[in-house]
Amino acid sequence: MEKKVKILLTGSEGNLGFSIKDKLKNFKNIILANKKKLNFNNLNSINNFLNKNKPDIIINTAAYTNVDGAEKNKNICYKVNALAPKKIADWSYKNNSYLIHFSTDYVFDGKKKTPWNEKDKPKPLNFYGKSKYDGEKFIINSKCKFILLRVAWLYSDRKNNFPQKIIKKILEEDKIYVIKDQIGTPNHVEFISEITIKVLKKIIKNFDIKSNIFHVSLKGQTSYYNWAKKIKIKLKNNNCKILPVSHKKFKTIAKRPLNSIFSCNSLEKFLKIKIPNWEKVFKKKANIIIKNSN
Ligand SMILES: NC(=O)c1ccc[n+]([C@@H]2O[C@H](COP(=O)([O-])OP(=O)(O)OC[C@H]3O[C@@H](n4cnc5c(N)ncnc54)[C@H](OP(=O)(O)O)[C@@H]3O)[C@@H](O)[C@H]2O)c1
User: At what angle do helices 278-293 and 189-205 cross, to 10 degrees?
Assistant: First the structure.
């Protein structure tokens, strides 16, 4: 018989959290926590919140995601991305709850020439990546039941992600330079939230499902430069020139991995699914993104 469960979603107003919140509408017993309700900066408040609400399953999307900001605000970043997940995982272990947690391609150094799989050793290049990797290790060491989903190159219809930023630039400038040697797979948050719901349903069906790490991504790959060119085609009648540039010319505070492509064979086997190509998804979403960017 299926277990009756109470589900907590943290980061419910974030890029991914917002999309998962929408998909949770069909579930009963949902506790939504945005930063106002549950602020990870106050580590002591986490146990109080969990003791009060006693969730059976926790979906943790809350994170400090400002990659450059993390180099300056190390304390806050580490609290939110490493120490708060540790608190949640320790509580989950003691209370027999299941934790679904999100991590990132930034745990890797990007130097591999082929897609990253779950057996590859993380070696973060920046503080954000280190904080997320430490968060992963705390969860694994807590012995709680967990599914850790590593995601990369997220975008949505509503937030100021890569497509929205590029659309703004294309509309305002005659010529823009975009990085050509950083590659990955653009993932619309709706795809990630659909996968999360599939994982959630598996846990509800079998609470003893084995803890594991999965890479979650659509298929295919592109560079930021080639993605920008595809975005421009969707804008029609636009004369802005898009020019390729090396990452070396684009100085950022934090270093970023050059290869962020994930191999998702384990996830496909686990969920018995065939993952579609990113371009198919992007083609469907482009118009709404353009409309929302106006
Ligand atoms: N976006 C990407 O391309 C990407 C790539 C790889 C992995 N990820 C991972 O995917 C997950 C979801 O990311 P996302 O793109 O949805 O990020 P996001 O849009 O920045 O959402 C993160 C959420 O966490 C909240 N948050 C920040 N500080 C907090 C705190 N101290 N206490 C409680 N909540 C706090 C944010 O609230 P405020 O907005 O109010 O600060 C926001 O609602 C994260 O684990 C992230 O590391 C994202």
Answer: 120
Whether the Cβ atoms of residue 203 and residue 147 lie closer than 8 Å to each other: yes
- Ligand 1 centre to CA of 15 (Å) is 7
The per-residue pLDDT for 4 is 78
> What is the model's pTM?
0.96
Name all domains of the chain by residue range, CATH numbers in brackets.
7-159+185-220+259-276 (3.40.50.720)
Say how many Å lie between the CA of residue 34 and the centre of ligand 1: 10
Q: Which pLDDT value is given to residue 3? A: 54
Q: In the numeric block, which tokens belong to residue 123?
A: 């070696």
Q: Which helix (H) or strand (E) holds 177?
A: strand 175-179
59 φ, ψ (degrees, to nearest 5):
-105, 110
Whether 16 contacts 154, CB under 8 Å: yes
The Cα 147–Cα 257 span in angstroms is 24
Enumerate residue ranges in the chain where pLDDT < 50.
Answer: 1
Answer yes or no: is the C-beta of 65 below 6 A from any ligand 1 atom: yes
Residue 43's alpha-carbon distances to 48, 99, 172, 175, in angstroms, are 10, 18, 43, 46
pLDDT tens profile 158-214: 878 899 999 999 999 999 999 999 999 999 999 999 999 999 999 999 999 999 999
